[in-house]
Amino acid sequence: MQITLVSIGKVDAILMDHVKKGLRSRFKIPVLTGSEIRAPSSSFNKFRNQYEADIILNELEKNFDDKVLAITNYDIYTQRLNYIFGLAKTKSKSAIVSIARLDPKFYKQPGDIELLKERLLKECIHEIGHVLGLQHCKEKGCVMNPSNNTRDIDNKNFDFCHMCQISLGS
Description:
Elements: E1 3-8, H1 13-27, E2 31-33, E3 44-45, E4 50-52, H2 53-63, E5 67-72, E6 76-78, E7 81-84, E8 86-88, E9 94-98, H3 113-131, H4 150-154, H5 162-168
Parallel strand pairs: 1-2, 1-5, 4-6, 5-9
Antiparallel strand pairs: 3-4, 6-7, 8-9
Helix pairs in contact: 1-3
């Protein structure tokens, strides 16, 4: 198994490299870098000024043979929620994570690249956890605990709890 890491639109190379190294370290599998791709035009909702993540995931599913994680600066949503940090279907092969609302600047706070890198990697690990078959976890601090806001992300670890590790077979 391997993961292909792609960007949808321009994403800072420092962030892409950080995620690549973090996923390699966490999952002990090859992480390849794919080329930048475009979001399907049908995924953009001009009334919301956001991209619908489900449409993007469906396109990723069609175009990649193995596991793929897309990272984007675009603000994303699903039909059920006003916004999301990321999305993956359990036991699928694709996931997407948006940097937009992970960045402190989105909330009119000073830029903090280290905080952004930390949040991004946690969300990427979380979404790959879904791809590998994990559901949301109620264990406080587990990376599979759902994130409804950045405080939730900041309060969890990079690690899977004991039960999630067992479910992963590690």
